[in-house]
């Protein structure tokens, strides 16, 4: 699908979709709890459908509508076929750990983009906890030879490759026969995502202890209890709507928890530092058009914000410097390279030095851009198209369904001039 966007305004009020990251975690916790759990307001997108599907193939029944899922937690069953995780790295990593609880062999695969997502460190962490598993060098496919139980003990893994490795180990550690200790050999990046995992566990009666620096975790053997939970709004998706208001009009985004542990809540602080006009009223954030100024920011803990922060920098006064971008090379695309190429196509001056990106603010020209089937790049470039001099054409625009299926419809509801949807 090709979407074309012309320069114009974004005005109105809209509700942020539910959190993709928390939907994944609540599905896993519900599956680990024996009994019926209810997940209200889940996000129904490509990635969460992948988690729902593979859990179903492992004997976990998930039923219900878009607004409510009922999850019947049971003993995991050996799947009849390999578990295909689509393009969802979260599904692959969290479910790999859950497969340790299957009495039998599980093989996890995915689409071509997933074959480039590292997983070796998680596999080695599981091996240290007594789980027999292996992968293809650094990457999927993954084979787990489960026995229906986890021994526990001590595991050491790096913290600067993916926080999902830590989250995966934390989710299954309570099911181990003996206490588990997880130590990180390098500083943890994306700390809020691990905090989110522990938040979800607490809702199901499980507690993991973390050191103050989040380099060490202790988990006692425990049981997940069934629960009724609600998924909060997604700050990652909301960031594009807030950016649209900041650049092209006035947008109010509802369903946002200012006390959330989500990493991408940082977008409010970043916009504030850039001089944006921000209003906060309860669970609503209002952004109005204002000339922004360049910023220096480290995105190590919130790498998913990189595309939207980059387009904000592209129209800000002066030079911006973005750091902490190393792990962007292992997303749905090489997100750093793809963003640099597309910004340059739109006439934005950038300079890259290793994992640091310099962006000179100016007036984007528009043009034909290729998000490389990366949902976050497609959404960011769409927002930049709102203030570009000429039409912006986005290829493979359907890729937004990975995390935000209603994105194009929501933009239209804000009065954005777009065609092709």
The number of helical segments is 12
Range of strand content: 25-35%
- In total, the number of domains comes to 2
According to DSSP, the number of beta strands is 24
Largest sheet: 4 strands, mixed
Unreliable stretches, pLDDT < 50, 5 or more residues? none
- Can you list the strand order of the major beta sheet? 22-23-1-24
Terminal Cα span: 8 Å
Shape annotation: globular
Radius of gyration (CA) equals: 21 Å
By CATH, the architecture of the largest domain is named: Alpha-beta prism
- Name of the CATH class of the largest domain: Alpha Beta
Structural class: alpha/beta
Helix content: 25-40%
By CATH, the superfamily of the largest domain comes out as Enolpyruvate transferase domain
Tag the structure with descriptive keywords.
421 residues, alpha/beta, UDP-n-acetylglucosamine1-carboxyvinyl-transferase, Chain, 2 domains, four-stranded mixed β-sheet, 12 helices, 30% helix, globular
Write structural notes for this entry.
The structure is a single chain. The protein is of the alpha/beta class. The protein has 2 domains: 201 residues, UDP-n-acetylglucosamine1-carboxyvinyl-transferase, Chain, CATH 3.65.10; 211 residues, UDP-n-acetylglucosamine1-carboxyvinyl-transferase, Chain (Alpha-beta prism), CATH 3.65.10. Strand 16 and strand 17 form a beta hairpin. It is 30% helix and 26% strand. The protein has a 4-stranded mixed sheet with strand order 22-23-1-24, with helices on one face. The longest helix is centred in the middle third of the chain and has 14 residues.
């Amino acid at each position: 699908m090709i979407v074309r966007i012309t320069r114009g305004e974004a005005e109105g009020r809209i509700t942020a979709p539910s959190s993709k990251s928390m939907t994944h975690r609540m599905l896993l916790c519900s599956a680990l709890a024996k009994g019926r759990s209810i997940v209200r307001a889940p996000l129904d997108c490509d990635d969460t459908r992948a988690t729902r599907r593979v859990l179903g193939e492992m004997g976990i029944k998930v039923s219900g509508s878009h607004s409510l899922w009922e999850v019947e937690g049971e003993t995991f069953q050996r799947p009849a076929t390999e578990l295909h995780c689509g393009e969802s790295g979260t599904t692959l990593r969290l479910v790999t750990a859950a497969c340790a609880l299957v009495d039998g062999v599980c093989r996890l695969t995915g689409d071509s983009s997933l074959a480039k997502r590292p997983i070796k460190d998680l596999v080695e962490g599981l091996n240290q906890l007594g789980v027999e598993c292996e992968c293809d060098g650094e990457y999927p496919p993954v084979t787990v030879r489960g026995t229906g139980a986890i021994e526990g003990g001590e595991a050491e893994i790096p913290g600067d490759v993916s926080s999902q490795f830590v989250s995966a180990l934390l989710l299954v550690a309570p099911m181990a026969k003996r206490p588990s200790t997880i130590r990180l050999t390098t500083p943890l990046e994306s700390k809020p995502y691990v905090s989110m995992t522990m938040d979800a566990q607490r809702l199901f009666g499980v507690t993991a202890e973390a050191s103050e620096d989040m380099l060490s975790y202790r988990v006692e053997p425990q049981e997940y209890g069934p629960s009724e939970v609600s998924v909060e709004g997604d700050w990652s998706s909301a960031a594009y709507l807030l950016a649209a208001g900041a650049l092209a009009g006035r947008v109010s985004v509802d369903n946002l928890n200012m006390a959330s542990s989500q990493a991408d809540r940082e977008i409010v602080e970043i916009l504030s530092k850039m001089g944006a006009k921000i209003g906060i009223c309860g669970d609503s954030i209002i952004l109005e058009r204002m000339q922004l100024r360049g910023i220096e920011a480290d995105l190590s803990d919130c790498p998913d914000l990189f595309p939207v922060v980059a387009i904000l920098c592209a129209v800000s006064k002066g030079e911006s410097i973005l750091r902490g971008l190393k792990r962007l090379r292992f997303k749905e695309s090489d997100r750093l390279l793809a963003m640099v190429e597309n910004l340059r196509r739109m006439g934005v001056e950038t300079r890259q030095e290793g994992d640091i990106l310099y962006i000179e603010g100016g007036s984007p020209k528009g043009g034909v851009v290729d998000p490389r089937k990366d949902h976050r790049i497609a959404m960011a470039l769409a927002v930049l198209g709102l203030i570009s001099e000429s039409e912006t054409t986005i290829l493979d625009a359907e890729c937004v369904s990975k995390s935000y299926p209603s994105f194009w419809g929501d933009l239209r509801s804000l009065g954005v001039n777009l065609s092709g949807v």
